[in-house]
Write a structure and sequence with these properties.
By secondary structure, this protein is mainly alpha-helical. It is about 50% helix and about 10% strand. The chain is built from 4 helices and 2 strands. It has a two-stranded parallel sheet. It is globular.
Length: about 90
């Protein structure tokens, strides 16, 4: 079950144990993880993390920790990735 879709800051702050992530947010993510629920990360957010790492605005460890978290899930390659919605002819 999907518990939430994380933004860039909350995903990084959680993985890097940054104190700027609020206690309620940290507890929510911890609870989702222990109950087997997914926290998704949009592909755009993943691209942003890779971009910021490449520009040395984030440490390489940020991307490495994210990659480890994504690979730890039984459905490798799917966790952390929000499925793109097909565009309609009106978009």
């Amino acid at each position: 079950m999907i518990a939430a879709v994380a933004d860039t800051h909350s995903a990084l702050w959680y993985l890097l144990r940054n104190p700027r992530l609020s206690l309620p947010a940290r507890n929510f993510i911890d609870t989702a993880a222990t109950t087997g629920n997914d926290i998704l990360l949009s592909p755009v957010r993943l691209a942003k993390i890779i971009y910021l790492t490449g520009k040395n605005r984030l440490p390489l460890s940020a991307y490495e920790k994210l990659k480890l978290a994504m690979n730890a899930h039984p459905r490798k390659g799917q966790i952390g990735m929000e499925k793109p919605h097909p565009m309609s002819a009106n978009d």
